[in-house]
Amino acid sequence: MVDDDETRALYPFAFRLTVDFVLGADGLDMTIEVHNPSADTVLPFMLGGHPGFVWPLPGAGEAEAHRLWFSETEQSQMVVLAGAADAGDRTFSFDGRVAEPAKMDFFGLTHALSPVRSDRVTFGTEAVHVALSYEGFANLAIWRRDTAPFLCLEPWTNLPIAVDRPTQFADLPDIERLEPGRSRRFSMRIAPGGTKLGGAPQS
Asked: What is the distance between the alpha carbons of residues 34 and 203, in angstroms, rounded to a whole number?
């Protein structure tokens, strides 16, 4: 994808966005490249993935048995995103390594680890699970539409902009900036696993 008259009317910057998918026997790889073709203008941007998984996973058992395993020890309390007035009383805390998504409150809320230390999170049970690995993203959001039968695990470069923040995107202090002529790459990988699929149990 490259900029054109339509994109520049809303986002007045030159850019090239390339997304490559490779599907193999052991998983799906995605590589994203952001390029700034301008000779003199810095490119401000934010980038995020939106992988979603059916919950419960087929063959994995009950939804309440699903876990989120993190590859590193995370902060114990997640950041709450969204506009719920009582969101401060609805934060989710865990031991930093294993979380129970069934105990998370998703009504009007998104939970996030910011910054995220892990470069991999595994969702499911020992019988069946999927591992999401990512590189280049500083945050991980966990989202579900109320009680819908799916869970989204979303690597983001930055947290979303609140409605009361400045409206000039380029002036925001906490977004990515790419110098003229430079490129930046990000990656995600989704790999199935579990004892039912011939793999080792998750621990």
From this structure: 35
